[in-house]
Amino acid sequence: MERVLFDGELALDHQATWHLIKSVWIDSENVEEHDEFWKDIWPEAKLDVTLNTKELAAFHNLPNMVPVWHGLERDDSKALGFSWTTHKGVAEWFAQRFARLNRRPAYIAAGYVSKQHVKAYLLSRGEHEIIVFSDNLEQVRVEPCTAKGIHPSESSEES
What we know:
Layout: H1 2-6, H2 15-27, H3 35-41, H4 47-50, H5 53-60, E1 65-72, E2 83-85, H6 88-102, E3 107-114, E4 120-122, E5 129-131, E6 137-144
Antiparallel strand pairs: 1-3, 2-5, 3-6, 4-5
């Protein structure tokens, strides 16, 4: 995908291209493996082509400063990544999922992002996923997570 995109074969101003990019993102279990690719592609995102109609309507209903959460398997504010959620229970579930898998304590990061810095708001898997660069987050804190959380498939569209 990287070769096709950056060789100019797909225009980054078309919804079909972003539909493909979002599909690859959503199907990727470990986006950190291709960190540089995502660091190159997400800055190009424009909400009018990145979001579908449902996502755009939900995005407009968010407050200007969006509260977001991110599940972690370690207390490391330097490893926050691009993927956040507007649903705290979903972040808790992800924190517990990876912590259990790796037999570590779970942590959750919380913060705020201005809507102007959001690259995408993905609703298709119930994750209420906000794509944002961590340097655009404000008031970030990392703390232990003891809650079980809510599996994304069980979360409602309202966060």
